[in-house]
Hints:
This protein is mainly alpha-helical and 331 residues long. It has helices at 2-18, 26-37, 46-80, 92-107, 115-137, 143-167, 173-180, 192-208, 210-216, 220-225, 230-252, 258-270, 274-298, 307-330. 76% of the residues lie in helices and 0% in strands.
Amino acid sequence: MHILGAVLLAALLLLSTAYGTTSIPAADVLRAVFLGTGIVEGDMSPLHRIVFDLRLPRALFAAVIGAGLGVVGVVLQTTTRNDLADPFLFGLSSGAAAGAVFVITVTGDVLGFWTLPLAAFSGGLIASGIVLGLVHSLRTSAPEKLILAGLAVSFLFAAITNYLVFAGDSRAAHSIVFWMLGGLGLARWETFPLVCAGLLLILCYAMYRGRWLDALLTGDLTASTLGVPVQRLRFAMFFTAALATAVFVSVAGVIGFVGLMVPHIARGIAGPMHRHLIPTAALVGAALLTGSDILSRLLLAPQELPVGIVTTSLGSVFVFLLLYRTAGRRK
């Protein structure tokens, strides 16, 4: 199954790289990749540079960020025992959005290209720190308390973002809206190691604690009797998920519903055990966001939709179907 998923993802990556304002033959795409990586020697034409410097990073960003958000969704849904948990629910995306909008409307690019990613990353970390601080002050890691704290922080940072948009320069409104809806326009080779680090962080830690996550499926009491430090695991997983999400949002904006949809799809394919669920979620997330990015360029071509509009539309339909299926089981 994983091999089939990898083949599908490779095909989507090739399609994403070949398609754009001007379609490029697959042979030219492959030659540009070989020239750019040094496998084949020769001079790169302007067409090859478009492929290697613009389209290929974008396709890889979509795959890596989609995989990361999928794994984050699995971790959050397991640790909170909430099937609708995703990064939006805990204020992580709202905090990152507030940081980015603050830069766009107030400070400007004081640090050059890295200003926006660093501001969004800082906003996401601040939001996660507030959530963890609230939960710690309550001396509990109960899932419902974590969710309520996340919602409160999400509303707080959403209000801050709206104030900055209203009080800021109206000429920046288009950039703000496009960024808040999610997009891959900031995909550059310079920031690719950053998103890879975010994926490796959440993927490796989730796989490392896979058995503990399996134990959480049985409930806190049973997991504790099996030797799992439930409270410490929940805090560590949330912090790791927050750190990874802040990285993804800092370069791609707020891309909604990927972290909600992917775990459900992956469980239908691989089952609930995390040894197989986590890599499956990474593949499904990568394919979902790569395909959504292709759709965002197709629907209004030659204009480009923010990819978040596509994922949110798919997510709303998915939630309707999920609720309908749940209601059907109860009859």
